[in-house]
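Hello,

Our lab assistant flagged a job as stuck in the queue for most of the afternoon. It eventually completed. Since we weren't sure the result was trustworthy after the delay, we are filing this so someone can double-check. Below is the sequence as submitted and the structure that was eventually returned. Let us know if re-running is recommended.
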Amino acid sequence: MQISQVTTHGKAKQAAISTDGKYIIHVMEKDGKQSLWLRQVATGSNVESLPPTGTIFSGLIFSNDGNYIYYNQREKNSEINTLYRMPVLGGTPVTIIEDVYNAISFSPDGSQFTFLRIDLSTGGTSIVIAKANGTGEKVFVKNKFPDELFVSSPS
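-- returned structure --
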């Protein structure tokens, strides 16, 4: 294994590595705005996938087949993330599902994903399962405050 520094500008926040290790997607923050950048590991080439916005990006993950990037985006004054999907090599992001707390996790065959949802009115948390296109949402298990809450990404 070889470890190497990927960025040197000090503005990278979050990152995800594609399953084949060929790409890295990361959030760059500059002047209070965030953008998404894709890096091709073998060549060191970087390309801006999404231009700077006043929104917050989180939960970056590649699809199992490596063709798509999934990410959460929310307004700075909001607590609600919306999950988006976009092709790795660029294209228009598509809204998949709303009210996603953290990074999603795919099933081994990539047909479904799971995520956490927080009920802001009660403080409870739920583990939710949905199809890869965001349809067929089902609550797998739900906890209510002050019971033990789910806090990390399910897998």
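-- support follow-up --
The delay was a queue issue, not a problem with the job. The result is valid. The mean pLDDT is 88. The CA atoms of residues 61 and 70 lie 5 Å apart.
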